[in-house]
Amino acid sequence: VQAATMRLNQNILLLGKKVVLVPYTSEHVPRYHEWMKSEELRRLTASEPLTLEQEYTMQRSWREDADKCTFIVLDAEKWQTQPGTSEESCMAGDVNLFLTDLGDPSLGEIEVMIAEPSCRGQGLGTEAVLMMMLYGVTRLGLTKFEAKIGQGNEPSIRMFQKLHFEQVAVSSVFQEVTLRLMMSELERQWLLEKTSHVQEKPYREGASEPC
């Protein structure tokens, strides 16, 4: 049941003001692969360099993974003002949810990457995280979120703190900070207000069109 729940997003598009979230498909892999050639991005995401073929294999495994939910973040302005343009040309980054604690299915680890330099510092990451949290709360039944961020990644730490996450641990071994948000009724209402504009639409691979 949980696996089917995590794969719900294969047919879902989430439309926000600044970003559009779509499932990670093979169409997105070449651009994603180009991003991950950056040493800085690999360091920030603790990722190993992969060949393009390995990246395609990874995309397929993520899609089938019962413990992971991935959306590609599209720049909504590009996507809406250039009808017929490919999703790949609108890609800004990705946002992920992991069910890392087998004993607690209500806890989701969240991470976001705005990889496209021209898209940074404009609030795309913030909206992507809010939309993913909304999805986690309303579709996956999550009530707690964690974010693990490299100690040197100050912009990301500040962003999560603005979203009501509080620091709960620091690992000098992994050089990362763990932040957590407990979804009380008050926090849930705040989240629903922050995302009241978000629309959920059906998604068909290779055929998402602005509406």
TrEMBL record:
SUPFAM superfamilies: Acyl-CoA N-acyltransferases (Nat). It is an enzyme of class 2 (transferase). One of its GO terms (cellular component) is protein-containing complex. N-acetyltransferase that mediates the acetylation of the N-terminal residues of alpha- and beta-tubulin. Residues 19-166 form the N-acetyltransferase domain. Belongs to the acetyltransferase family. GNAT subfamily. GO terms for molecular function: tubulin N-terminal-methionine acetyltransferase activity. PANTHER family: ALPHA_BETA-TUBULIN-N-ACETYLTRANSFERASE 9, N-ACETYLTRANSFERASE 9. Signal peptide: none annotated. The keyword Magnesium does not apply. It catalyses: N-terminal L-methionyl-[tubulin] + acetyl-CoA = N-terminal N(alpha)-acetyl-L-methionyl-[tubulin] + CoA + H(+). This is Alpha/beta-tubulin-N-acetyltransferase 9.
